[in-house]
Design brief:
Layout lengths: L1 H38 L10 H14 L13 E4 L13 H13 L12 H5 L3 H5 L2 H13 L4 H14 L15 H12 L3 E9 H4 L3 H5 L6 E13 L2 E12 L5 H9 L6 E4 L5 H8 L6 E8 L6 E2 L10 H9 L2 E4 H4 L8
Parallel strand pairs: 1-2, 1-5, 2-3, 5-6, 6-8
Antiparallel strand pairs: 3-4, 6-7
Helix pairs in contact: 3-6
């Protein structure tokens, strides 16, 4: 009788001990889970301010089942400018840096460039003078360095350049100068059922080789300026060849046109940084229902650059005024971002 009682007491004590251990393990798991959640929190490189709160609120509104603001996942389209919105654009657009490097590399095969502008100025190290020729000069430089090769050859040149070229200020690959807060924003939107597109004035063939690796955006979701292409047979193999003629300038009014041609519907959210994005932002905001428009304003001269209305690159003037008047979200880079680049 006593032995039986003793056995029962011992059994209960062991059960109680196991329960305590289990609770302790559970509490530990919860603490680790909270720690992991804190580390993996969305938009970690954003300071808690009006811009971050506006993004989170919009995403919550359009993803909340049963809410009047709910938007089906298939209609959650977000479009992003690239230069100055997803990566830096100073001291000049990075594709233009690529063009300048290509002119220097191709110069031995073009001795006539020594006496012909804008190539003469580029080879003399005076890129500013070369750009004084305006859009015509840029178009000529792009045509001479891009046309005549197959799209595969051009892609190989872009990849080689990105692997070897270094930014003149930071001494790092150009793809290191992507904005970490915007990388987090892209991921945050995709985690909430958005499909993310690039809509840039940059060349589509220049961007497509690397956007998946850098932004998580596949080539088919990249819209940009395009030159005409021709199908030729070279060495018995059909190839697509880049021509010097322009097919689409995906800037200003060309952005909504490019979106309609490529996607076929109006975005739910649009992100830009300059007057070149204004028409895309206006077109997005004009649709009925919930819409989100955001402008990145460059205000950080220490970590990046500070410029807006008077800049010759990425001018933010009319779009800034309209954003202020319409209540669009304006990101102040210095105030709203804990860091600009991942390497910082």
């Amino acid at each position: 009788m006593g032995g039986t009682v003793s056995t029962r007491v011992s059994h209960r004590g062991g059960g109680s001990g196991r329960a305590i251990v289990s609770l302790m393990l559970l509490a530990g798991c919860l603490l680790w889970g909270l720690a992991d959640a804190a580390i993996a929190q969305p938009l970690a490189s954003w300071n808690d301010g009006p811009a971050k709160r506006a993004i989170v609120k919009f995403v919550a509104d359009v993803t909340r089942q049963g809410a009047s603001t709910f938007v089906a996942p298939g209609d959650r389209i977000a479009v992003f400018d690239n230069d100055g919105t997803l990566w830096s654009e100073r001291p000049m657009y990075f594709q233009l840096m690529f063009v300048v490097d290509r002119i220097r590399a191709m110069a031995p095969q073009h001795p006539e460039w020594k006496d012909r502008e804008p190539f003469k100025s580029v080879l003399a190290g005076d890129v500013r003078a070369a750009l004084a020729g305006g859009e015509n000069a840029v178009a000529e430089m792009v045509a001479m360095t891009h046309a005549g090769m197959t799209v595969d050859e051009f892609e190989a040149q872009v990849n080689d350049w990105l692997a070897t070229a270094r930014h003149p200020r930071f001494g790092r690959p150009y793809t290191d100068l992507v904005y970490q807060p915007m990388i987090e924003l892209l991921a945050y939107l995709r985690e909430n059922g958005f499909k993310t597109f690039i809509v840039s004035g940059g060349g589509v063939e220049f961007m497509r080789p690397w956007t998946r690796k850098v932004y998580g955006i596949p080539p088919e979701q990249v819209i940009g300026s395009q030159g005409k292409l021709a199908l030729e047979t070279r060495g018995g193999v059909p190839v697509l060849v880049k021509l010097p003629q322009v097919d689409l300038v995906d800037d200003r009014a060309g952005k909504p046109i490019g979106i309609q041609k490529h996607i076929g519907r109006r975005p739910l959210a649009a992100f830009g940084n300059s007057d070149g994005d204004l028409e895309m932002l206006q077109w997005t905001a004009a649709a009925p229902g919930p819409r989100f428009v955001l402008i990145v304003r460059h205000t950080d001269g220490e970590r990046e650059w500070a410029y807006d209305r008077t800049s010759s690159i990425g001018t933010l003037d009319k779009a800034w005024d309209e954003a202020s008047a319409r209540g669009w979200t304006i990101v102040d880079m210095r105030r709203d971002w804990k860091r600009v680049y991942a390497f910082q």
